[in-house]
Specification:
Mean pLDDT: 93
Number of helices: 6
Strand order of the largest sheet: 1-3-2
Structural class: mainly alpha
Number of strands: 3
Order of helices and strands: EHHEEHHHH
């Protein structure tokens, strides 16, 4: 029988590209199971834990919230689930991203307009500060 690989938190962090601090945070949130402990108290992680961490990292990189990552993990673990459920979650997230993009573009446009009207010289007059204070 092959022995399962076990990693301490620093090794798990390096292999999963998730910081040790975030690994502990994900444990607290229940995204990954509480780590087993060595006799000396070190957190120990399995290959399966690393797989979960990589899944969470990719989900975070795509902008999914913690709640949606929990939902994705639940769907991933549920082998009887419909792919429709996963797709609907992704489509919902896409709508949220599109809304954020629209909001960010509007902010950029306002700031660009203000910056275009600011002389950026030694004079104290600044339309950017006037807009922010008004």
């Amino acid at each position: 029988m092959e022995k399962a690989l076990i990693f301490q938190i620093s090794q798990a962090a390096r292999k999963s590209e998730v910081s040790a601090k975030m690994i502990r945070h994900y444990e607290e949130l229940g995204l990954i199971p509480k780590a087993r402990r060595s006799p000396s108290g070190y957190r120990l992680y399995s290959e399966e834990d690393l797989h979960l961490l990589k899944f969470i990292k990719k989900s975070r990189d795509l902008g999914f919230s913690t709640a949606k990552i929990k939902a994705l993990l639940s769907l991933w673990r549920n082998r009887s689930r419909s792919s429709r459920d996963v797709k609907n979650l992704a489509l919902s997230h896409i709508q949220e991203l599109e809304q954020k993009i629209t909001e960010l573009q509007a902010m950029r446009d306002v700031l660009k307009k203000l910056a275009d009207h600011c002389h950026g010289d030694q004079r104290p007059h600044c339309p950017i500060l006037e807009e922010l204070s008004g």
